[in-house]
Amino acid sequence: MDLAKLWKFVEGSEQSKAQQEAEKGIREAMDLINYLLYVRNRELEHQNELSETMGKMEKQLERKTHVVQTLATELETLKQNYAQQKNLFKAKEQALLSERKTLQTEKKALEVNCYKGKNLEGDAAELEKLASAPIDDFTPTPFNLATKQGLPKYITESMDVLDEKLKQLEHVILNEMPSAEARSDREVIKRLRKKLDDAHVIINEQDQLLQASLSSPAKDLRVARGKSSQNLASKTRGQRAGRDIYAPADDSPTASSLEELEREKRELATSRKNLENERQLLQEQAVKLDKDRLEFEISKQDQMFGSSKDSLLSSAGGRSPSIADSSSCSTPKRKRRAKMLDMGGPDSPYDIPVSATPGTAALLKKIGINVPTEK
């Protein structure tokens, strides 16, 4: 009996130990399963967050790409419009130049017809030779000068062409004089040559002064551009700092692209304004050069005709009246020339029935063209 009870007690204790170990293994397995489920849930939540973030980033990237494409399209449109306007201005310039040359050709043809209508066939032929010369090769074309760098070269070429024009005019005037008078008036020709050299010296001095006055504003313009670019850079940095404070970090590429586009627009407007200012300055300088050329030609023609007339009168005054009359008016050509030199008479061939301003009338009167002034 004692052995049976002892055996039952031992067997019960062994069963309780095995049951406890089994329960312990089951609890450990359940804990492991719960941990794995928790880790799986956390991983799923993290994946969901990543997918949502990627979706938002893709949408923002698409929106910013669309904005950049729109801005690039607008920039191309602005460039095309600028090129079209530039081509339009060039076409207008060429049309104006062709129209000006056509009007000058018509003017010279009308002058020849006027001489022919007044029965001055000999002088009309010589005037026709003079009219066949090139028409204003040194006509200022400021629209072709985008900057002031090529302006000194342009002025030098214009002065060279002006010298050639003066030589042609001198050659024509010398050909109009008879050979005897040309031999007897060598001193007059020397004086005229001296005056012409003095005029060339004055023109060169004016050219140097004009180049000096044009070179200094160019430096100031570059300095002004540098200052404006520095101010623009400081303003851009300030605006960028303000936007960085109040704007989120995701919009920085868009903000930088917008700032670059605004900066390019401002630079384009500034360059366009500078081009307009330079174009206006060149137009004013061209008008001044034309005026100086006209005054110089008028004074030179006045000196030549006045000196030839004085020499003729002085040579005729030393002889007897009959000899002077016979020598000065011996041929029809000399009679016509004497009539032309008599610019103050009522039968002057230079009367033009067109009104003009007092300043223009005074300049034209110096070369013997009588023009009524405006009331």
Tell me what the structure shows:
Helices cover 83% and strands 0% of the residues. The longest helix is centred in the N-terminal third of the chain and has 116 residues, at 2-117. It has helices at residues 2-117, 121-131, 151-176, 179-184, 186-246, 252-317, 321-328, 332-341, 358-366. The chain is rod-shaped. The model is unreliable at 136-146, 216-230, 240-251, 315-330 and 341-355 (pLDDT under 50). The termini are far apart. The protein folds into 3 domains: 16-105; 121-227 and 289-337, no CATH class; 342-375, no CATH class. The protein is mainly α. It is built from 9 helices and no strands. Helix 3 runs antiparallel to helix 5.
Topology:
Blueprint: H1 2-117, H2 121-131, H3 151-176, H4 179-184, H5 186-246, H6 252-317, H7 321-328, H8 332-341, H9 358-366
Helix pairs in contact: 1-2, 1-6, 3-5, 5-6, 6-7
Question: What brief labels describe this structure?
Answer:
rod-shaped, 9 helices, 3 domains, single chain, 375 residues
Spatial extent as radius of gyration: 48 Å
The strand count comes to: 0
How would you spell out the order of helices and strands? HHHHHHHHH
Strand content: under 5%
Note the main sheet. Answer: none
Shape: rod-shaped
Give the N-terminus to C-terminus distance in angstroms.
162 Å
Count up the domains: 3
Region (Disordered): 221-265, 305-354
Biased composition (Polar residues): 227-236, 305-314
Keywords: Coiled coil
Coiled coil: 61-113
